[in-house]
């Protein structure tokens, strides 16, 4: 039996989408975030890092959303719904599958943390300094890199309908989390192909079934 350990408002949505696309039966165990927005300690009973998503398949426990998608592709995807067969599509699939967590998410996590710094408890006279430093890091380091990332994605989606070509794949699932998260707080109107792709994601029946079960990511 497949069990998806799902942290509310999190990357687990990707895996629910994949499981729905493959038409697999699975249980969802939902964990609520702590007041500090972290995962509860109970998730560490499933995997030592206690980060979601985690998938259990019988005795096997798999963490890392990219690794989980690859596992599902290897074990349950005889019709290549998650992982394309052709060489060119496979290259795009691999690139974007890794890009999502390797290049995109670290920037978003940094942005989230630096945005939060000025509102953390601290002596009142330190706050303006903290705010200046945070804004400087966001403006000079994070924003330009994020714009490069979005330009790269926009350019790719100008040529391809989905990340790996004509068909939806696990690469779209990996890329959905950072792009949905970003679009919930930042206008993407300068990136019409990303917006078109986000619209297609939201229209996908398997995505809609997943969201009905685990919810869509809301605020970043
Ligand atoms: N690279 C990992 C990241 C896992 C991760 O950081 N998950 C977040 C949820 S979106 C988490 O569990 N956060 C809770 C915490 O850090 O306490 C993946 O793609 O699965």
Automatic annotation (TrEMBL):
One of its GO terms (molecular function) is glutathione transferase activity. The lineage of its organism: Bacteria, Pseudomonadati, Pseudomonadota, Gammaproteobacteria, Oceanospirillales. It comes from Marinomonas fungiae. Residues 86-220 form the GST C-terminal domain. SUPFAM superfamilies: GST C-terminal domain-like, Thioredoxin-like. It is an enzyme of class 2 (transferase). GO terms for cellular component: cytoplasm. Keywords: Transferase. Belongs to the GST superfamily. This is glutathione transferase. Residues 1-80 form the GST N-terminal domain. InterPro entries: Glutathione-S-Trfase_C-like, Glutathione-S-Trfase_C_sf, Glutathione_S-Trfase, Glutathione_S-Trfase_N, GST_C, Thioredoxin-like_sf. It catalyses: RX + glutathione = an S-substituted glutathione + a halide anion + H(+). Its EC number is 2.5.1.18.
């Amino acid at each position: 039996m497949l069990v998806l350990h799902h942290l509310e408002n999190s990357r687990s949505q990707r895996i629910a989408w994949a499981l729905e696309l493959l038409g697999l039966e699975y249980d969802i165990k939902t964990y609520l975030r702590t007041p500090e927005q972290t995962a509860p300690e109970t998730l560490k009973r499933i995997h030592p890092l206690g980060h979601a998503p985690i998938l259990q398949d019988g005795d096997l426990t798999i963490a890392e959303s990219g690794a989980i998608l690859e596992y599902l592709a290897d074990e349950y995807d005889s019709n290549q719904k998650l992982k394309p067969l052709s060489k060119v599509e496979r290259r795009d699939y691999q690139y974007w599958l890794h890009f999502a967590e390797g290049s995109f998410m670290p920037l978003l996590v940094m942005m989230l943390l630096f945005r939060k710094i000025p509102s953390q408890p601290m002596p009142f006279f330190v706050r303006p300094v903290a705010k200046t430093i945070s804004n400087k890091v966001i403006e000079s380091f994070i924003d330009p890199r994020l714009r490069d990332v979005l330009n790269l994605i926009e350019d790719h989606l100008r040529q391809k309908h989905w990340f790996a070509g004509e068909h939806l794949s696990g690469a779209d699932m990996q890329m959905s989390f950072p792009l949905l998260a970003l679009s919930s707080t930042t206008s993407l109107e300068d990136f019409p192909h990303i917006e078109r792709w986000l619209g297609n994601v939201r229209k996908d029946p398997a995505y809609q079934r997943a969201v009905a079960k685990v919810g869509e990511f809301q605020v970043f």
